[in-house]
């Protein structure tokens, strides 16, 4: 069940009143009860006993907490009045103070509310007149207190987010220094993370532009024990890449995966190291995780047109042969699809390549043909075999290169032999206490799960500002050292169009076609209006963003 964003924020705020982060699970029924109460709910002992066993070793994740909260009804004035009528049995809502204390407090020695507690509550609520409690008035006070509790939780969340934002550099650095006294100096030009002695798992991957969306290799990660962990993403450079676009921002979002398959956002690689990589460092619990790569689209974007020059792929002389230029491109591709960097393509790696270039899976008989007719080592295809396979394809087509161009286009290469529609990267996972296990889980889009995590990460680290003359529109503007993001949230039920103008910014590039752009924001949702990067690396850059909302669509709406 999807939660409304405002309700999701209330539950997040309530959870963070009990735990420091959503990555930490609730560990006992008292924590569960407190978190539910901060969310303005009233779990009964029977409800808690039904969903929590104190002798069980299980814990409760944030996602499970949200699911549990949805099973409890919101408290209404009618519910409270009906309860009071059932307990006190009076039609006029009046009951003697002594009877009230006896019925509410009870006679048990370990009761939750003492006489002093009840006296304090009644005095603060101002509901006692001539030794008589006005239950109708008390009902309204209780409901008001419930709403105040929810508002206080959200306020604490916003204050906490503001604190993190003001201290974004020092706060994140302190988390790293829990494990090692290290700082990152981006001027060094190389990594300054001290990971000597840590166990590491490395894999490669790539972003591919695909009909307006971005596909990327995704990863499943197993941690056999709890401990300090670093997840690191670094763009990889190749000779045939398009040098004019600059380094592609290469991030990773980490999700914890439950046994049921639900995924909860843990964090993302929000720190930039001196070698150009982005990393995240914190303690990960034992369990299964999913790593989803992400790039903003500021530099990896659809080419407006093909370049003028075109390389030849095939030489037609006495026999059909691949050109030296094409062989260099194929060598790059082989290295990119050799995800584990062992110099050979296993069936899974070759299958991902074949699926990307043809849209088809490699069948058992087809893989047997590859192993029988091309150079392999330990049952895996070598570079020599990979080149020979494409040589055979060129021969079968009589020297016609159009099918070869289809493969190159799918791998992100233009007709000049430059890779401008794809961006290779390397993923490294380090653990100080155990050997991480990382495997490729597929080549796909991050979908709504990734989109929501990106939006959430921006909103949690940005200052909310109401958009002028639009009571239900809020802008979240995050500006860091290396990138900036603008999110627009629509709290109303109807969709609106918002013009987000960053044209007065200096030395920036956006993921949108223009710095002045309009986005349509559906009701009760939030959307990224702009992602911004420095246009010229190493030079000063400034973000200036003006917004204006309208209920009418514009020509540029998304």
TrEMBL record:
<keyword id="KW-0677">Repeat</keyword>
<dbReference type="GO" id="GO:0060170">
    <property type="term" value="C:ciliary membrane"/>
</dbReference>
<keyword id="KW-0479">Metal-binding</keyword>
<dbReference type="GO" id="GO:0098797">
    <property type="term" value="C:plasma membrane protein complex"/>
</dbReference>
<keyword id="KW-0106">Calcium</keyword>
<dbReference type="GO" id="GO:1903569">
    <property type="term" value="P:positive regulation of protein localization to ciliary membrane"/>
</dbReference>
<dbReference type="InterPro" id="IPR011992">
    <property type="entry name" value="EF-hand-dom_pair"/>
</dbReference>
<dbReference type="InterPro" id="IPR018247">
    <property type="entry name" value="EF_Hand_1_Ca_BS"/>
</dbReference>
<dbReference type="GO" id="GO:0005509">
    <property type="term" value="F:calcium ion binding"/>
</dbReference>
<dbReference type="InterPro" id="IPR002048">
    <property type="entry name" value="EF_hand_dom"/>
</dbReference>
<feature type="domain" description="EF-hand">
    <location>
        <begin position="325"/>
        <end position="360"/>
    </location>
</feature>
<dbReference type="InterPro" id="IPR052266">
    <property type="entry name" value="Miro-EF-hand_domain"/>
</dbReference>
<protein>
    <submittedName>
        <fullName>EF-hand calcium-binding domain-containing protein 7</fullName>
    </submittedName>
</protein>
<keyword id="KW-0472">Membrane</keyword>
């Amino acid at each position: 069940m999807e939660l409304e964003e405002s309700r999701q924020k209330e539950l997040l705020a309530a959870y963070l009143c009990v735990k420091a982060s959503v990555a930490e699970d609730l560990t006992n029924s008292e924590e569960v009860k407190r978190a539910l109460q901060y969310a303005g709910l009233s779990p009964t002992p029977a409800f808690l006993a039904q969903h929590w066993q104190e002798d069980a070793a299980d814990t409760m994740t944030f996602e499970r907490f949200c699911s549990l909260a949805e099973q409890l009804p919101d408290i209404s004035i009618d519910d409270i009045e009906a309860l009071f009528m059932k307990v006190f049995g009076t039609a006029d809502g009046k009951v003697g103070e002594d009877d009230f204390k006896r019925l509410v407090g009870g006679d048990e020695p370990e009761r939750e509310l003492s006489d002093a507690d009840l006296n304090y509550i009644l005095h603060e609520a101002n509901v006692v007149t001539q030794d008589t409690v006005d239950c109708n008035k008390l009902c309204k006070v209780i409901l008001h207190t419930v709403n105040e509790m929810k508002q206080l939780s959200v306020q604490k969340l916003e204050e906490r987010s503001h604190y993190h934002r003001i201290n974004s550099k020092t706060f994140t650095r302190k988390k790293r220094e829990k494990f090692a006294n290290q700082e990152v100096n981006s001027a060094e030009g190389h990594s300054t993370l001290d990971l000597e002695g840590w166990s590491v798992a490395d894999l490669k991957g790539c972003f591919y532009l695909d009909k307006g969306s971005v596909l990327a290799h995704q990863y499943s990660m197993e941690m056999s024990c709890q401990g300090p962990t670093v997840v690191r993403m670094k763009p990889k450079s190749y000779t045939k890449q398009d040098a004019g676009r600059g380094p592609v921002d290469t991030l990773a979002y980490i999700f914890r995966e439950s046994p049921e398959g639900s995924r909860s956002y843990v964090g993302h690689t929000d720190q930039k190291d001196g070698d150009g990589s982005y990393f995240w460092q914190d303690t990960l619990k034992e369990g299964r995780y999913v790593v989803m790569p992400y790039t903003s689209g500021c530099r990896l974007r659809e080419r407006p047109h093909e370049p003028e020059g075109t390389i030849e792929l095939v030489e037609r002389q006495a026999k059909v042969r691949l050109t030296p230029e094409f062989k260099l491109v194929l060598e790059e591709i082989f290295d990119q699809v050799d995800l584990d960097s062992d110099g050979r393509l296993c069936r899974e790696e070759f299958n991902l390549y074949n699926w990307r270039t043809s849209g088809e899976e490699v069948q058992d008989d087809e893989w047997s043909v590859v192993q029988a007719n091309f150079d392999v080592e330990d049952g895996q295809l070598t570079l020599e075999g990979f080149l020979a396979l494409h040589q055979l394809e060129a021969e079968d087509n009589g020297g016609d290169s159009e099918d070869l161009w289809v493969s190159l286009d799918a791998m992100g290469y233009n007709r000049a032999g430059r890779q401008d529609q794809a961006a290779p990267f390397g993923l490294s996972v380090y653990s100080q206490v155990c050997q991480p296990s990382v495997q490729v889980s597929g080549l796909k889009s991050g979908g709504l799960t990734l989109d929501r995590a990106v939006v959430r990460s921006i909103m949690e680290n940005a200052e909310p500002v109401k958009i002028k003359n639009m009571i239900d529109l809020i802008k979240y503007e995050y500006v860091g050292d290396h990138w900036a993001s603008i999110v627009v949230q629509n709290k109303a039920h109807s969709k609106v169009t918002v013009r987000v103008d960053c044209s007065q910014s200096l030395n920036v590039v956006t993921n949108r076609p223009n710095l002045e752009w309009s986005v349509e924001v559906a009701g009760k949702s939030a959307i990224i209006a702009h992602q911004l990067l420095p246009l010229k690396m190493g030079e000063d850059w400034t973000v200036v963003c003006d917004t204006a909302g309208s209920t009418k669509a514009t020509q540029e709406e998304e």
